[in-house]
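Give me the fold.
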Amino acid sequence: MSTSESDRKTPPAYADLAGKVAVVTGGSRGIGAATARALGAHGVVVAVVGRDQAAIAATVESVTSQGGAAIGFSADCTDEEAVGTLRRDVDEQLGPVDIVCTFAGGNGMPVATDAETGAHWREVIDSDLTSTFLTVSAFLPSMVARGSGVIVTMSSAAARQAARSSAAYAAAKAGVVALTRHLAGEFAKDGVRVNCLAPSAIENDRMRSWMSAAERAALGATFPLGRIGQPEDVAAAALFLASSASSWITGVTLDVAGGKVMV
């Protein structure tokens, strides 16, 4: 195994995370599931949030089988009432939340702008931007009241440079970047840090259904670092932003993009 592969599969140790409570929306698959596992491996009690009960259960099992603690919660993060119920359920079952990773979304299928519809535009804005706002607004007041907390949002390389994804997705993810900066500036005085991750091409079930192994390898060759990303690459960045190792960092967008995005 190469050094880079070993580093990717063994996240760095952040001892300060042990005993904290985290919510990971979009936590049942891909980046969210990898982040839930990484947090669980560091002693964080994880609320795994998604909409597919079977996928939620699989992620919870993957956390607990490695000695971590996790509970699954089903919620549509575009529904304000559902997110409010989620917040109450998490508080009752796990206690006050220290870390919120708003990773729900990912509706980035290419759509030509001259073929875009208002209904699809609103769907994407809701799934990728409104869901972030609703999740943050549900859990932020408790963090402010306690004078501490960490929020990690999820943007995309599509928000950082022109890409094949739809204009709606680019606008939603750019909105997440702007929302992150605004929140970071507004709530730094309250001890709440807010940062953003912007991944580029990440290998997941959806990508594997779209592209053959050869096509994925060819795509990886276009990145300066010579490969496409893995969910664990983004999870490792999320751990850093959630931990005290980043205690003097807020309002940043970290491009987890293999060198393709350099801002």
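The mean pLDDT is 93.
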